[in-house]
Amino acid sequence: MESFSIGDSQLRASSQQDIFYGPECARLNHYINNGAWVPKTSDASQFLEIDTGWIVILTGIAIQGHPELPYRTTAFQIRITVNLNQPFQSYPKGKTPKIVSVGWA
Known about the structure:
Blueprint: E1 11-13, E2 48-50, E3 75-76, E4 79-80, E5 89-90, E6 100-101
Antiparallel strand pairs: 1-2, 3-6, 4-5
């Protein structure tokens, strides 16, 4: 995503605080508009969906908070699907979803 090889049309979010905090702002090290995707509410139902357009091998995930305001993700989980007509599944497949806690210094 950082390199823009994934286009804005491939990003979808459950919500956004306003027009300046949409999913297109979720790119690492880019300060588009206000520099972060910020959901409208702070709860576990919020999500950022990234459609890679093809099957890829993920080798890492990096996140960062808003560059100036105290908006930070504190936990996340990865869910995957190969067919967008089917529900997302836990990753690793068939196991209890792992919740990744994030500590901020």
